[in-house]
Amino acid sequence: MSDLRTQIQELGRRARAAARTLAQTSTDTRNRALLAMADALVADEAAILPANAADVAAGQAAGLAPAMLDRLRLDARRLRAMADGVRAVAALPDPVGRILREWTRPNGLRHTKVAVPIGVIGIIYESRPNVTSDAASLCLKTGNAVILRGGSESLRSNLAIAAALARGLAAAGLPGEAVQVVASADREAVKHLCAMDEFLDLVIPRGGRGLIEAVVASARVPVIKHYDGICALYVDRAADPAMAEEITLNAKCQRPGVCNAIETLLVHREIAAAFLRHTGAALLARGVQLRCDPEAQALLTPLAGAHPGRVVAATAQDYRTEFLDLILAVKVVDSPAAAIAHIAEHGSHHSDAIVTADAAVAERFLAEVDSATVYWNASTRFTDGGEFGFGAEIGISTDKLHARGPMGLEELTTYKYVMRGTGQVRG
Amino acid sequence: MSDLRTQIQELGRRARAAARTLAQTSTDTRNRALLAMADALVADEAAILPANAADVAAGQAAGLAPAMLDRLRLDARRLRAMADGVRAVAALPDPVGRILREWTRPNGLRHTKVAVPIGVIGIIYESRPNVTSDAASLCLKTGNAVILRGGSESLRSNLAIAAALARGLAAAGLPGEAVQVVASADREAVKHLCAMDEFLDLVIPRGGRGLIEAVVASARVPVIKHYDGICALYVDRAADPAMAEEITLNAKCQRPGVCNAIETLLVHREIAAAFLRHTGAALLARGVQLRCDPEAQALLTPLAGAHPGRVVAATAQDYRTEFLDLILAVKVVDSPAAAIAHIAEHGSHHSDAIVTADAAVAERFLAEVDSATVYWNASTRFTDGGEFGFGAEIGISTDKLHARGPMGLEELTTYKYVMRGTGQVRG
User: Fold this and answer.
1) Structural Rg of chain B based on CA atoms
2) What's this model's pTM, rounded to 2 decimal places?
3) How far is A31 from chain B (nearest CA, A)?
4) CB–CB contacts below 8 A, A to B
């Protein structure tokens, strides 16, 4: 057994022991720990910011892109925001212990299905150090122990943050091993982590496709993930054009770099000319590049004006790409059925929307599109734990099992069946 | 790409298309299909029984054990029982389309969390051909397409059964590809099946540990499984002795070969002498071998009488073994805490029970034992979809995600969020 594997297994063993303790704690105790963790983050500023500065300096020396350096960098304000995030989690309702269902069989045996913590959760993420405190607080809130593996470029920051969180846990009488950071930057650590099904119950990778595929390939424990957000908006012939335009602009331009922004616009042929001329101009005015099928291209090219490169022919790949940028693939379709078929073929089962005044067409779209979240007359940008009213979000799942769509506190619990009898035996 | 991989992927492609059709069918249509499938099973007796006879003859020639040959063998009565099983599934309530939660956010956007089919499910199992119709009917009931991979020794039977089921599907206007059997006996087929995350949403392996481990190692899709049922009964010092004995005998002897039978008996020291003398004699009279720690062995050895081999010293491994036989590991413990610690250390998180009249001790046991189903004053033998009132069971999960414990029709569904708005965009 390699030293690294031994080291990761030891993290796992400690996390499992901590999880057994956490599972028996009260809501109050866990909330007190969260508040103490928030206080410790602020109190440890003098340890965390220098550790972070060392990460940033190493990142600069290694030639990290400015955007990545910005995500990595902490200052006193960002640290206070992290602490406030932890306090906000303390204020949320506790999903642990909810009675999900209760019934008594004819033999008198009482069945209670009750929400309990999952156990030990692994979170694998990239450069943002704030994920360390976010993920730790959500897991602790729900009585789970967590093993965190951030990007190697933020390792010093993450270790300093975890040390502060452990002090907060200890102040509330909870084991510091409830929140642990993998101390090695070795990529093999991820493999060892995801393979140890004795000590880990779930792994949640958050990051690029390469990271997630590596986790899926090596995991022997359940993985909850989303690879891509290739979201589409279908503007039906019965759409209100003003509503359709407002939703298109919101879903594409309000924050193009996130997974619930649209990447594809499908337009019914009967309204394509009028709609694309008006809304296409609005998109172009906001700097969006339109990658079009021939029909849309013919309609939109005259609008490109001084920026002919803003209207181009789409490749087949453009309809399968998460641009995360001011780029939109556009296609004219014959019918709602063609839109639904396009989404089934090209989409990533994340969030898809229809704009129409025709309720029958809308209901068909909502029923047939097999995505985590399907919208009628609203922007796809609402696929978000906060927008759903969950109060917090550990991620968004395009998987179908356990959690689908925004994954909040409830999705960080499982259940057990508690059976209370009076001597029942099976006949 | 190997021919086999191409062939399995083709099954997947067809299953995905069938799943899209199934997801839009009504409860009535699926129930009509189930009844037609049941009729076709009986009508195809002249094709199914000779195919099965060929499997049995090949099994005999290959030296299959008599118990395995018995599980493999079909006759007219067993075939009718399979058909009746399919009809019983048709009569169950449909979990698809249930509204799980509904709420409206302050912006007026209505959120509906609705139960939908999972999509395409792979079931991998061993020799019983009746699993073919059981699993197919449960998947079809819930609007899922299924790819079935039974034991190679039952391949002819399974193909004949699947042909009958496909005729039933066609009679109800549903695609025959909703139920497909992997036609290859090659073990590599399982690997290809579990790796194709594009076409498969879930795999459920049912069988021995080797089969399940092979699936887990190669799967890129979620797996729901249970490796072992190492179930324990703890008889507390405050137990009613007669109730404790009745539950012990039921949980060990009523059907020792199943996963919810107990393999370990833990007895509080204060009542060990009286309880083990009486209940030990009853167990020995039923032919149970008792594998004991020194304290229990000293108490039980005098009872072995003409069968001294029935009371032996336990090895460490005996407390971690699923005997599936008339064998019981016995241990005297100091306290409820010691019993809970033993179960955490040795159990398989399946089903564990306490017998006690002390409510505080019982509630502690129910809270702290981290198993799918925990019992107070009842036999572990109730961990079963039928006993729970689920009407049917596709398996029992010792995993924690998506399904835990008996997995019935509801657990063969996932959910989606359907959002109905009036033009909402995100601010």
Assistant:
1) 24
2) 0.94
3) 20
4) 197
